[in-house]
Amino acid sequence: MAVAAERASYRFVVLVFNCLLTFGSYFCFDIPSVLQEQFQGNLTCPNGTHHNSTGHNSTLDCVEGLGMTPAQYNLLYAIYAWTNAVVVILAGFLIDKLGNRFGVFVFSLLTVLGSSMFALGSHFKGSPYLLPLMLTGRLLFGSGNGSLTIVQNRITAFWFKGKELALAFGLTLSFSRLGSVLNFFFTQQFEAKFGMQWTLWGGTLLCVLGFVSALIVSILDKVGMKQLGLDGVIQQESKKVRIQDIRRLALRYWLLVLTIMFFYNGVFPFVADASKFIQDKYSGYSQQAAAYIAGAVYDSSLVLSAAVGILIDYVGLRGIFAVGCAALTLPVFALLAFTFVPPLVSTIWLGITYSFAAASMWPSIPLVVPQATLGTAMGLATSVQMIGVGLSNLIVGHILGTKSSELKIPLWRWQQMMIFMLANTIACIVASISLNIVDKKQGGTLNRTRKGAAAAQEDRAPADTAPLLDDEMANEGSGS
User: Fold this and answer.
1) Which residues contact 366 (CB under 8 A, 6 or more apart)?
2) pLDDT tens digits for range 73-105
3) What is the pLDDT of residue 242?
């Protein structure tokens, strides 16, 4: 008789709480994007000129806020990315050595502490303590959230490898992006009614929800491992993990990492500044309407991720999908740079390609590395991604200028930013094509169809019951 942990219902219960790990942190991550006008607004406004951010004449009125320059604002995103780049390498290795339960507890706690300090910083408006406190908060938040995503992916890969892997990754992304979507829909209204400080503390409360989910996931993971008889095996395999194992990661892994980095270089920095861009370039958009349109990137992802995951689970061809979604992203930034086509077209379009990218690229990592070093591999991938995103945020901040509380950024600066996004997308296409060429020479793992994948799974059937034992052997044959 099958134990509870072997049933599909058990792993999907694990998935539900695993999805909730990052719901609150993704909500918090893009709060500055929705409230960009308030973050860069004037410390004080003359009587009668204060603007509540809901009218259509937002570029002409004074907006009261924290007084950050565009460069300081983009630094909030850059420090998050740079922190991720450094911390996630060590975090991935520690997760491989000490286990998922250690990871979810420590890193979800860091998101709570980081979001709390970020909210606390807003109480020091006009003082020299504001920026250091908020940057420190983003640093702690980035240390937790990026690492939490690694352990979240590792849990998903363990419970769903050889089963509904892309669907599980798609649902995880959907729940995370639900936090982002709700942020774009409700944060501006909440801020208008209750103020920035209460808005930031509300985001912290959602991070506490993630911490509670982390405790539940830990219990479910521990119980499930014991029922499957794998707890001792995993601990033995974890002891074998060494930092030197990085040298064994195959060329196609590194090409996959570059593909991910260049794609996300176009998505995250764009979304961070999209609300302001829409208001500056297109007439008639309030801050709230601009936030809704910018959030359509995540709206599309939220709606499509699960369906795209099912599609990719069914047909395979992950490498081909990676090339396709990168190529189809080119017109998005071309439209934004050189035309006045309504911005909603571009943000929905980007959301669609982002959904396919996330469902094809990240679930490919467990297919090209040993399970025992998956945390390290995920950490390295996240690190390289965040190095790229951090550099992109700094470059975008430089392109857009450094003048404090600039009411309207010139359109030629926005056009230069979009050309920079285009350059990253072209680099992504080159990396993904190279990935497909190398993968074909090494057995074509990424582009196996469902039938081919099923045949390969039969050849190494122990993967379903003891995923930590087989991958190292399989990787020596096909991935080294």
Assistant:
1) 157, 161, 165, 374
2) 888 888 887 887 788 778 877 777 777 888 889
3) 59
247: exposed, middle or buried (Cβ count in 10 Å: 0-12, 13-18, 19+): exposed
Residue written as tokens 């908060």?
A: 137
| pTM strictly above 0.90 | no
The phi-psi region of residue 472 (left if phi > 0; otherwise alpha if psi is between -120 and 50; otherwise beta) is: alpha
Q: How far apart are CA 59 and CA 61, in angstroms?
A: 6
pLDDT in tens, 165-196: 778 887 887 888 788 888 888 888 888 888 88
Q: What whole-number distance in Å separates Cα of residue 55 and Cα of residue 63? A: 12
In order of 253, 293, 323, 354, the CA distances from 169 in angstroms are 18, 25, 19, 13
Could you give the CA distance from residue 158 to residue 302 in angstroms, rounded to a whole number? 23
Residue 168 one-letter amino acid:
A
How far is residue 96's CA from residue 376's CA, in Å, rounded to a whole number? Answer: 7
Is the pLDDT at 464 greater than 80? The verdict is: no
Q: What band does 325 get if pLDDT is binned at 50, 70 and 90?
A: very high
Find all residues with CB under 8 Å of 90, minimum gap 6, and list them: 379
Residue 473, amino acid: M
Question: How many residues are listed for the chain in this entry?
Answer: 480
Task: Quote the tokens at residue 148.
Answer: 């939490």
Token couple for 97: 């050595």
